[in-house]
Amino acid sequence: MADYQLFIDGERCDAASGETFATHDPATGEKIADVAKAGREDAVRAIEAARRAFDEGPWPKMSGKERAAKVNRIAELIGEHADELAELEARDGGGTIRKASLADIPGGKGAFEWFAKMAETQPDEVTLEGSPFPASENTVRYEPMGVCTGIIPWNFPFIMASWKIAPAIAAGNTSVIKPATFTPLTALKLAELIEEADLPPGVVNILAGPGGTVGEELAGSPLVDKTAFTGSTEVGRRIMQLASATVKPVTLELGGKSANIVLDDADLDQAAAGVLWGTFMHGGQVCESGTRALVQRGIYDEFVSMLADRAGKIVLGNPLDFATDLGPLVHRSQVETVERYVALGRDEVGEPITGGAKPEGLPEGLDTECYFQPTIFADVDNSAKIAQEEIFGPVLSVIPFDTEDEAIAIANDSIYGLAGGVQSGDLDRAKAVAARMRTGTVWINDYHLIDPQRPFGGYKQSGIGRELGTFGYDAYRQVKHVHVNPETSGRDNHFHYAVLSDQI
Length: 504
Ligand code: NAP
Ligand code: MG
Hints:
Blueprint: E1 6-8, E2 11-13, E3 20-24, E4 31-36, H1 40-55, H2 64-80, H3 82-93, H4 97-121, E5 125-127, E6 137-144, E7 147-151, H5 157-170, E8 174-178, H6 185-197, E9 204-206, H7 211-220, E10 226-230, H8 233-244, E11 250-253, E12 259-262, H9 268-280, E13 292-296, H10 297-311, H11 332-348, E14 375-377, H12 385-388, E15 395-401, H13 404-412, E16 416-417, E17 420-423, H14 427-435, E18 443-444, E19 459-460, E20 463-464, H15 469-474, E21 477-484
Helix pairs in contact: 1-7, 2-4, 2-6, 3-4, 4-5, 5-6, 9-10
């Protein structure tokens, strides 16, 4: 039996093939657990269970209030297991225990609470006022979509699982989720908590397995009504292709290359900390990271040297130590990607002003191969590959600009449009700049603040649709218009039939 099993139709089980795969702690290279490795057969079984639970089970017929009670119970159980979940999250993905305890686990819990509130408070039916032609009652009903699948990445495994499951089930759908192969553990632990919350079987199904088989089934199956995906733009395109076979609605949260604009009236101390936080949190393995800092010429030299000094103070170490700022990247392969881009940056731009290599002097027992120093390239041209392509690692490109128009043109010169920042002492000026940025989120004098109440998603190739907020709830609801002609006999109210004929 695997240490972590699949969760299908209300029961934990091994994969049909009996196969398992090992998951590792990137900080030390140690194996953490053997995980049941789902294949296509398991994915089909999970989708069929979700289909039955939707078509025949009680879940979609329950009131919003009843569903909210169950969704809130999941949140409560997350709270009770917060420490265990945080440690598992930090070990499986290499993020710090600080981030896991302060952001990941409360963030996931908050998503369940928010969508429970949506189920309780958002109306299922709204009557339209003023529909005179002909005299009639018109209502809009909001209904669950059916079986909703979610495919999630390795950078925020617990939050991403929560963002996909919570809105789906709160709105009355059933759900099948696949975590990323690098980081399956907290999603599978969440399955245990959902089992304890005692939802009807098949309402939530969670299975770890390869994207190429399990993921493709979740996106392509004709039994599935909606797919939500977070990950790379490349795989996002593939998800759209698979979903198009049955014209399945998709929500896609994809890559980014967000610009953090530092205007010359900014408090430089606050802005420098903000730019470093915006870029290096979780080693830059964040889709909305502000990996391009656009800095106005008058403050440029001073600001760049502040960034270099302070980046050197970021402490790399054991992610389970609360004193550590940065742990390893998720996997050696991710470090190799970063090394490729840093070499490219050296060719395109020159020597980085700080970082540029694996760190030395890490505490005993840590796997140096998985770590990379915070790295900053200055005087980058926005056309450089390191400024255009998503690196998904701790690499910042600093780009000078003269005027606000120029800053906006540079910020928008990207295939992506996920997020961005404006750092300024003048809020009106900052808001005017924010209004011209073609991105789904802008943080003014801040960065990375995502909350279940606030919509999140991208413009351009950063994605389709929004998660969170009321938008993220409605993304899991169908809209039905019901027209009632109150005349149950007689023809007076049916004069429009004449559009076909006076003779019928
Ligand atoms: P990824 O390769 O796109 O993988 C994401 C998920 O898709 C994983 O669960 C993966 O499974 C699965 N997958 C891979 N190929 C698939 C296929 N052909 N069909 C269906 N599913 C498939 O991305 P990643 O390496 O996990 O994450 C890094 C990327 O995600 C970055 O580019 C980043 O920008 C983006 N990202 C975006 C956001 C956002 O909110 N916009 C958030 C996080 C990450 P396996 O793990 O088994 O390969
Ligand atoms: Mg792992």
